[in-house]
Amino acid sequence: MKTLAAVCVTLASLAYASLLHADVKTQEFDVPKGAHPHDLAPAPDGTVWYTAQHQGALGRLDPKTGKTDQIALGSRSSPHGVIVGPDGAPWITDSGLNAIVRVDPQTRAVKHFPLPENRPAVNLNTATFDGKGVLWFTGQNGVYGSVDPKTGAVQVHDAPRGRGPYGIATTPDGAIYYASLAGNHIARIDTATGQATVIEPPTKNQGARRVWSDSRGRIWVSEWNSGQVSVFDPKTNAWKAWKLPGDNPRTYAVYVDDKDIVWLSDFGANAMVRFDPKTETFESVPSTRGNASVRQILGRPGEVWCPESGTDRLVVLRTP
Predict the structure, then answer these.
(1) Residue 6 lies in a domain
(2) Is the pLDDT reported for residue 15 higher than 80?
(3) Among 258, 248, 174, CA closest to 214
(4) What range does the domain containing 103 cover?
(5) Is the N or the C terminus of the chain less surrounded, counting Cβ atoms within 10 Å?
């Protein structure tokens, strides 16, 4: 008789097979135990950066060898998000340091851009670059702001409805949108004035957690409370939403790949979910380990990367 664990693995294998007909292949990489990889960012050289949140470090995985190394970011560091900037370097939102951090990919030198002293403990979350090379960030305790890498100037703004700013993303034309988890809305930032304008989703108390833009500039939103994925079209101000499959979906991360396929992480199903906007269909890919807790998704052409913060590993789904 099969054990429960064996049955779970078998079911997971069948679920993976549902995507393999499209030539999607998966590969898993362990990172140091206790790292709790929160966010990740594929680098131009083929490696992958990740935030080792519980170890105050920035990690780097070489997928060719499976080897990782980590760079300490400073005393009290607790890194949340990481992205690769136009300069090719990883930029980190570090809530423990209350600073934006840049790491030189060649020398491993760490540079801090601390927030002003009158802005302590903002709970830094995620970051993105606008079309002019300025970094914009969110702080869940009610702020958003920017760092100009050329001058080092840091500006912080009060969010229009207080607590909540979480995910943030840039459209192809350089516009910036963020999601407010506690505020149940998304907002567009005027990068010239720094002012944010609230945009209300049609579903009340939906828990907008992260946002991502497709190639048309439409904003895809992962709704944590409602278990939905929604999309906002700035050209028409129209919304549309879809409930993820399963009994109790909890949509955490969202990412749109180079083919405009939408990828989501579902804490309720312990799975990655693929959504095709053209056919409006979902395909669920359960993790092979329990409590995967994928909190962010990023990728590059042909690859979708996700950090399993609950299992201390990084997973890549390779697409045609």
Answers:
(1) no
(2) no
(3) 258
(4) 26-318
(5) N
CA-based torsion, 157, 161, 163, 166: positive or negative:
negative
Residue 99's CB is within 10 A of a number of other CB atoms, namely 20
Looking up residue 112, the CATH number of its domain turns out to be: 2.130.10.10
Question: What is this structure's pTM?
Answer: 0.93
> Distance between CA 223 and CA 227 in Å, rounded?
6
In a domain, 13, yes or no: no
Number of Cβ within 10 Å of residue 241's Cβ equals: 16
- Do residues 209 and 226 lie in contact, with contact meaning Cβ atoms separated by under 8 Å? no
- The rounded distance, in Å, linking the Cα atoms of 111 and 41 is 18
> Which of 102, 86, 48 is closest to 316 using CA atoms?
48
Q: DSSP secondary-structure letter at 89?
A: -
**Rounded distance between C-alpha atoms, residue 233 and residue 229, angstroms:** 14
In a domain, 19, yes or no: no
Cβ atoms within 10 Å of 251's Cβ, excluding its own? 28
CA–CA separation, 275 and 278 (whole Å): 9
Express each pLDDT in 189-227 by its tens digit: 999 999 999 999 999 999 999 999 999 999 999 999 999
Q: Measured between alpha carbons, how far is 81 from 87 in angstroms, rounded to an integer?
A: 17
Q: Please count the structural domains in the chain.
A: 1
